[in-house]
Every structure is written in structure tokens, then in C-alpha cells.
Design goal:
Two copies of one chain form a homodimer. By secondary structure, chain A is an alpha/beta fold. The first copy, chain A, folds into two domains: about 1-100 and about 285-350, Isopropylmalate Dehydrogenase, CATH 3.40.718; about 120-255, Isopropylmalate Dehydrogenase (3-Layer(aba) Sandwich), CATH 3.40.718. In chain A, about 40% of the residues lie in helices and about 20% in strands. Chain A is built from 13 helices and twelve strands. The longest helix of chain A is centred in the N-terminal third of the chain and has 19 residues, at about 15-30. Chains A and B meet through strand 6, strand 7, helix 8, helix 9 and helix 10 of A and strand 6, strand 7, helix 8, helix 9 and helix 10 of B. Bound molecules: 3-isopropylmalic acid (2 copies). One 3-isopropylmalic acid (IPM) sits at the interface of chains B and A.
Chain lengths: ~350, ~350
Amino acid sequence: MNLNIALLPGDGIGPEVLAQAVKCLQAVEETFNHQFIYREAVVGAIAIDRKGNPLPDTTLNLCKEADAVLFGAIGDPKYDNDPNAKVRPEQGLLKLRKELGLFANIRPVKVFPSLIQNSPLKQEVIDGTDFTIYRELTGGIYFGQKHLNEDGTVASDLCEYSEQEISRIAHLAFKAAKNRRNKLTLVDKANVLESSRLWRKVVTKIGESYPDVQLEYMFVDNAAMQIILNPSQFDVILTENMFGDIISDEGSVIGGSIGLLASASAGEDSAMFEPIHGSYPQAKAQDIANPIASILSAAMLLEHFGLYEEAMAVREAVDKSLKKGVVTPDLDSKSQYGTNQVGDFVAENI
Amino acid sequence: MNLNIALLPGDGIGPEVLAQAVKCLQAVEETFNHQFIYREAVVGAIAIDRKGNPLPDTTLNLCKEADAVLFGAIGDPKYDNDPNAKVRPEQGLLKLRKELGLFANIRPVKVFPSLIQNSPLKQEVIDGTDFTIYRELTGGIYFGQKHLNEDGTVASDLCEYSEQEISRIAHLAFKAAKNRRNKLTLVDKANVLESSRLWRKVVTKIGESYPDVQLEYMFVDNAAMQIILNPSQFDVILTENMFGDIISDEGSVIGGSIGLLASASAGEDSAMFEPIHGSYPQAKAQDIANPIASILSAAMLLEHFGLYEEAMAVREAVDKSLKKGVVTPDLDSKSQYGTNQVGDFVAENI
Ligand SMILES: CC(C)[C@H](C(=O)O)[C@@H](O)C(=O)O
Ligand SMILES: CC(C)[C@H](C(=O)O)[C@@H](O)C(=O)O
């Protein structure tokens, strides 16, 4: 297969982890006789520094032309505490999601048996955890109208949803549940928010077309508890943008390391794959960042194009590195392996 | 001391747990020679059923005239899944908070040593956890304008904050930090939300008047992870209404039981005390609901009026019940004690 892949390394540890994912994709090309073309572009803080824009047109066009985007990470603390900053790295990511129409962020949460002892949670609590979060990614309070009054004393953000925005991701989530354990949990705050009540109405209606799937409703505050108290109760979680941001990062602690979790963002015509961890600037260029999440993002990319055997080869190589202890220090404080060595090991084992 | 206490049992298990708190307050009256006057009123689903209004005027007036309000719980599932319901129990609670000006919800999160094994988290993760959440309670997306278009296909909620709303709770939180371990963590989403950027600006400015307090900023998605990964890093957490709802319920799992956690809601002229658990309708009238959170709410009420010795007597009696295993089944599945017996035991030991 020929694939055109846009590489967006971004900020912080983004470039170094993405490089390992590319190594693995190259190993897949060789082993399975595919041809992938990689084209790289800047995004985020580095794009602001170089071009004054967190998502330059050249980058956006490259992504639009590509079959898929492989993303590193975004964000730089120098922008975070400056309430007056006019451009921010995150705007690049948000605009990219919007422009590519990536309305569904899909995050699998699974426990790696060989790392079960790394979890802050007790083994009996997390045993059997295997769920996927469908987070709406191009609507809600992230993209609603923002306002700051003239003297800078009143600020607001609008959380708005339309039936159509809810409906398209709901269908994806129901379909996913059908292929899994037939359970869908809608997380909302319908006892307070008008937008949540619309979610409940639309999702309930759509549920009628998926009679095999058991639909359950959960308030977001309760969900924040249940994900820790009893994570194995979940199969597919469906939720809006802001709740999804919080709940999915919370879910990422279950497995013991955020350095292992990948995500896919899907739209009608585009797809992007990225680790769920951030740019982790403190670890930048120290060869300590965990490349597994980025490598598993590449595996999700392969699956997206139906290359299941190839994806499985990547996953098995990752499992091997975990079992053999060829891991970065975040997973084993005594480990001597760096980002590059872990990437090499996984690539060689494909 | 003479105190006028408004009792609002509310829905579900509210009445039965509140009754235990009152038992304990009566024991305090006797032992310490105080005189408390209790006046009861309906709120929530029961108030809708009886008077068609989740917060009848008589209830609101009773609360306004009282020195403090002791609250049970609110909510009934028959309203949750009806997107067309015009009145909802929760509206009663929200209106009460707004009308009494209860802008600060204060939730202490602490681990009871005798219950450390009940936590879903490993002991080494939660050891030393002792933080307090200051959640803004009368602003933000809970109270901003709601909108549903005519054909019911687009819904929105506005999250709005003013400098003054942020400032008054920020001062409370900084003062609390000064009396504790001098650390304040502001939880927001300033990389995305205009309102969060205002929070950051205002809180940073106020921080200059509290030079001893170390001010730290954390994005809410990261906070959702950190609360589980490393809860002992926190001293005082300050956040807006919606994030506070999620984060504080999440924090409540640390101690192993939400049935143990109390909260205070404070304003200029009023104060309300309530367990953080909900109405738990499945457990209603079965004599299995844990009354400790409600009893500890009463202890917070006593502290609010400077009755520290009295509050301590309540807390010590609670500790005794936990140590002796006089607890409801949620804490010990083999326990034979019911709600009433636990309440009696605590009251007798005051
Ligand atoms: C960087 C930030 C804007 C982003 C988000 O909030 O969506 C990130 O936290 C994520 O979840 O991908
Ligand atoms: C019942 C509900 C409206 C309420 C809230 O969201 O504030 C509750 O969850 C709480 O935290 O007190």
C-alpha cells in the first residue's frame, strides 16, 4: 500500500517520540512491502517561533493532502502563564482539528498485564479494564464564542452543540459498542446543562437504532468517581469535548503510565494519530521520553487503513519491549534505556 | 450558644442521614449546654411533589432567617432522563446556593487511617493526603444563560465569570492556604478558555498580597490525573464551578468512601453544610446509608460558629465508630450496623 503521511512533530518531546514511531513505520514498510511517504511540517510553539502562526497554511495544506497525520505533541510553558498572549501553541492544534473536521477523538484505555504494578490503583480494582472513550472534538466550549469585556473584568465562553454534531459521533460510538461488549455510557451533566440535555435527547433517539447496545447515562461528576472506583464497568464512553478532555486524562492513569496511551482523531476525510501525553517540556531532548504512546499511535494509523497484521506486529513488538524491560525510566526507574533505544528495539522486532 | 438551624432533608437518603446528624447535634447541646433550634423544610424532588416547586418560598425564607442550613441530599432519577421536564430537583439546590449567596464550596479531602485499606488506590499513593478544595459555587456555566433554539436542535450554556466573583473566593482560598501548608493550586483550562484566563489573571494579582503562599497553576485535565497519581502534593485547590464539581467528586474516592465526606458552602451572610454524596435513591429507607458524611457536616457547622471543642467531640466519636467497626455495610460488607445504629453510637460517644 502507498500512504502519504504528514508528520507534525510539534513541541517539547514531540519530535523525539515521533521519530521512534517513524522508525517503526519504516520497519513495517520493509517487512510488509509497503511504501509510505513522509512529509514534515511545523505546528505549535515552534511554528509560532518560526512563522508567527501556530498552524501555518503550508502545514494545514500538507495535512489536507495527506492520507493521515501523525502528530507529536504541542505546548510550551512560556505561553501558559501569559494571559495577554495573542497567539498560543494550542490554537494550532484546535484549528487543525476544526479544519480537518476531526470530530471524534478515540482513546482506548487498557491495562498492560506486564505493567499492572505500575498503576496507582490496586490490581483488583483495575483487572479487566478495557474501554474506549469517544470524545467529541470540534464543538462545545472549545469552539464556542469567547468574550472579554473592554476593561477586562468579565470573560465568557459559550458551550454550544447542535443535533448534527452530537449525532455523527454518537453513531460512531454506538457502532464501536456493537463491535465490543454492547454497552455505551453517555457522560453528561444533564441535571444542570441545556447542552447536556440535548446530548441525552439525541443519543437516546439514536440508541433506538442500536437495540443490542445497552445505553446508560452518567453524570460527569459521578463518572469521575466511577472511572477510579470500578473502571471495568465501562465498554464505550461517549461524551462532549470538555468532559472528554478531563475524563480521558483521568482514565489514562489507570494503566500506570500516560506514556503508553495513543489516540485517533477521525473525521469524514481525515484522520490524525497522536499520543495522549503532552509536550512534557521538562524532558525535552534528554532521551528519557517514553516513545510507546507515539509508536502505538502509528499502530492505530495502520489499523485505520486496514493494515491489521502490520498493526499487530507493532503491538507485539511493543509488548516484547515491555516484557523484556526495554523501557524508559518512567516505567522502571532503574532502566538504562533511552527514547532512541526503545524505538530501535521495537522497530527491530517488527 | 443559641443557634437557629434550618434542616433540609431533601430526597433519597437525605432524611435518614440528616436525622443522625441532628442526633449528634442534640448530644452536643446536652453535653456542652447549648441551645439549638431546628426548623425543617422541604427541598428538591419532594418539594416538587408536594408544592410544585423544588425551592418553595417558605423553605427559602426559613434558610434566610436561620444561622445555618444543614442539608441532606437532592435528586430523583425520575427527573434525570426526561429532557422535557420543566422543573427539576437540582434547580432547588442551585437556586438556594444563589439566593443565599453561597459562593464558596469547601471540601476537605483526607484519608482516615483506619480506612486506608478501603481506598481503590495503593496505600503508598495516598499516604499523607490532606487537601481542601475551594470550588466557586454561584457562577460559571451553572448559572450562565442557557438557550435552546425553537426546533430543539441547538442548545447552549454560557460560562461567564467576573473579576469580583473570582476575587472573593480567591481571598478565602489564599487565607486557607496561609493557615495550612502555604500552597495554592489554581485549576483551570487557560490554554483554551477565556474565562480561565481571567481566573489566572485575577488570582495571580491577588497572590501578590499573600507572598507566603506558593501559587501553582494546573490545567484541569492534568489535575484529573495528578489527584490520583500524587494526591499528597496538594494543599489548597481553587477552581471554578464545573471543574470543581468534577475534581472534588474525583477526590472523594481517595479516602475509600464518599460516605465520609462533608462540605461547607459559605457566603457573606449564610452558610450551609452537607454531605458530598448524592441522594442515592437505591438505598433509600433501607437503613444502610452511611450517616458519617452528614454527621461530619454538622461538625463543620459547629466549627463555623467557633465551637471547636464541640466539633472535636463529634469527630472523635466518629473516629471511634470507625475504629470499633460500628459502620454501615459500604465500609465493611460484613457489618450488621444500620444507619440508625451508627448515628446512635456516635451520638452516645459525644
Ligand atoms: C492541548 C489541549 C488544547 C488539548 C485539549 O484540551 O484538547 C489536550 O489537552 C488534548 O486533550 O488533546
Ligand atoms: C446535584 C448537582 C446539581 C450538584 C452540582 O453539580 O453542583 C452536585 O453534584 C454537587 O456537587 O453538589
